[in-house]
Amino acid sequence: MKKIIVFAVALLICSLGWAQTVMTVETRRVVMAGERFNIVFTVNAQASVSEFTPPSFDGIHVLAGPTRSSSTNVNIVNGRSTTTASTGFTYLVEANQEGLFTIGGGKVIVDGKTIVSDPFTVEVLIGDAQSTRETQNQEVRSTGEVSEQDLFMRLELNKSNVVKGEPITATLRLYSKVAIERFEDVRFPTFNGFWSQEIETPRDINFVEENVRGQIYRVAVLRRYVLLPQQTGLLKIDPAELVCLVQVRGNSQRQSMFDIFFDNYQTIRKRVSTTAVTINVQPLPSGAPTSFTGAVGTYTLSVAAEKDSINAHDAVTIIVRVSGEGNVNMIEAPKLVFPPDFEVYDTRTTDNSRSRGSSISGTKQFEFPVIPRSSGTFTIDPVEFTYWDIAKKSYVTLSSKPLILKVGRGVGSTSAVGYDSGVGQVAIRTLGHDIRYIDTAKPKLVSLGRLFMGSYRFWGYVAVAIVLFAIAYQLLLKRRERKKDLVSVRSRKANKLAKLRLKRAGELLNKDDYAGFYEEAFRALWGYVGDKLGVPPADQTKDRICLLLAERKAPQELISSFLALIESCEFSRYAPAPEAGEMDKVYGNALTLISQLEQTIK
Amino acid sequence: MKRFLLFFLISGAGAVALYAQSFDMLWANANEEYAQGQYQEAFDQYKYIYNRGYESASLYYNMGNCAFKMELYAQSILWFERAKLFDPKNPDVLYNVEIVNRFFVDKIETVPHFFMRSWIINVRDGFTSNEWAQVFLALLVVTLALLLLFFYGRSRSGRRWAFYGALIVFILMISVFFFGWSQKQQLQRHDHAIVMAPVVTVKSAPDRQGKDLFIIHEGLKIRFIDQVGGWGRIELADGRQGWIEVGFAERI
Fold this sequence. Notes:
The complex is a heterodimer of chains A (602) and B (252). In chain A, 25% of the residues lie in helices and 39% in strands. The termini of chain A are far apart. With 602 residues, chain A is of the alpha+beta class. Chain B folds into three domains: 2-101, Serine Threonine Protein Phosphatase 5, Tetratricopeptide repeat (Alpha Horseshoe); 115-189; 192-251, SH3 type barrels, CATH 2.30.30. Helix content of chain B is 61%, strand content 15%. In chain B, the strands form two sheets. Chain B has a five-stranded antiparallel beta sheet. A two-stranded antiparallel sheet of chain B has the order 3-4. In chain B, helix 4 runs antiparallel to helix 5. The mean pLDDT of chain B is 86. The chains are: A alpha+beta (602), B alpha+beta (252).
């Protein structure tokens, strides 16, 4: 039972392998009118093929067919055999009209399934019968040499007028009407002034028939390149060269009858070379933004950080990806401005561009490894990338969003003690020097070359100050003069006044008004010194009077007795009635003291 | 007649006010242009104010900044030096002068002055001449007041102090006047100049046939000590002398 299951599975796998049944069509793509050729429909199945329904051959005569043929191919590799079988249906046809004929797919039923081949086209050219014949057995030429028409090589460009950096596809093709045995001495073109890359280097050279100016050539692609002009101007591409070994039939006279039976083929060497091609490379127009580094094509830009939040002293990679079509591999890393506290390491560049079709497309990735040395939230300015858009004929600047990077406090900054010991201190780095900013405060403009110092205004102020001084001096002088006069008058009158007061005191004495007497005597004495010394009554104190008297050279005993008398007068004013002789004595004393002072004080 | 006079006065005052306003606007505009990196436009507007016959340290300073940003270093140092002349101790001006001087080739060892002289110059440059003039006037008033006190002081000791005070303030006043005057001289002499031509050959005589003495470059500060025709006798800070054509340098 188990065995049966295994067998069944194996059978299933086998049938799965067979399941890919397809029908292909083999024919020539280009033929001459009146030429006979085969159209072969091949199905990769053998036994169960039935009911082949041919397509309608519009405009093409079917001369014979279908002729059924089948083949089996057994391969034994390392003891394992694989079998491929195929069934072919061959038609011999002839086209008489010029034109492009599209022939639909043939239909075949294999194991009950209908399989249809792809439609195909045949191009029919008008040509003379002779050449048609020749083309049919073109392999051999009867002449001893091969003309330029029969074998040539071309370097074909998809455009020859480009801007700097715009990709060009160059294809090196060999066109032949003769049989080529092999190649020798191949020299591929050198592309001076271009960056070049081979995008197609066929290992086997496959010839395909092609219509070239009404002639059927067998054409092979030798190389295909993508070129990126690096210089401007008319750039010349040096020709490629190749030596082909071509088989021709010798045209020598037949020497013997045996030669009829043996064609004397000979191999000749034919050197073919392309013509020099010039490409007009125009410079890109001026006025490129500063972020332009030579990218040409169409691109998209993406900027991302490897991770959004990291710790200080941890590495993080900022990835800038430029993808699109154009000279992808020539793109230079855009400039990233990192905060000053970031350590930036060398940029790593990965080029994932591939040549596809006629240009290069893909992604170029720039990795910027950085290590932030301090914590905080940092914003990395938007990355700008500018390219020249070939289609729009203008510069296009792509700008990413600003990248926000949260940098946490790094480990290792806390100490073992358990409290934050702060961070390792680093001297402030100078990043650059520049002049200081302009003064924006309102300027105190002055007239050119005019200065206050030494100006008329300045001297005016000086004069005003001096005049004011002089006036003040004069005024003060006058005041002093007047005051001096007043004092001297009072001083002169002091004696008289004192005498008058004493006289009045004497009258009071006679009336026995002792309080009045003492008061009058006091005023006489006190008023006398005040007037004499020029002291206003408000400033009059005993100490001051004493000092001034001493200054005026009054004898010490006189001063003290004078003061004593004043004191006794002052005292007696409020004392009870004194003895009778006492007042007379005071009166006499006052008289003598005043006269003595009058004499001594100058 | 009276009404006419009044009209005249009012319109005159109005014109002055308008004038001042337009300068304020120019100034603000120029600052705005500078902030946006339009250095040439900013410079032109400052220059307009200057051409109208006005000056100030900050005007010169800003013009120097504009020239620097346009990478016209010789122009820049010229305006900075003018600002420095106007306000010798302005820290921003001094800083920028130092920065701009890094862009010039010639390195000169300045001959050191006698320390007293450099000290006096240092004090002198502490204030502008106008400030010195104001200080002088204040000191004059103080001196005169003290003199009055001396003449009419009441007490003998007070009068004595007033006398000494007046003496000291008078001496101060005289030196302040000297400082201010000397600075004014400095400002009006215009004997210093900046070399504007990229390279200038200094000759031994005021004509083209003179022997070549040495070569000076753009941005160097020189001093004109004499002039004969189109030729000026110059002295460098290290004491070297020679003759150059006056057009090669612009006076500060």
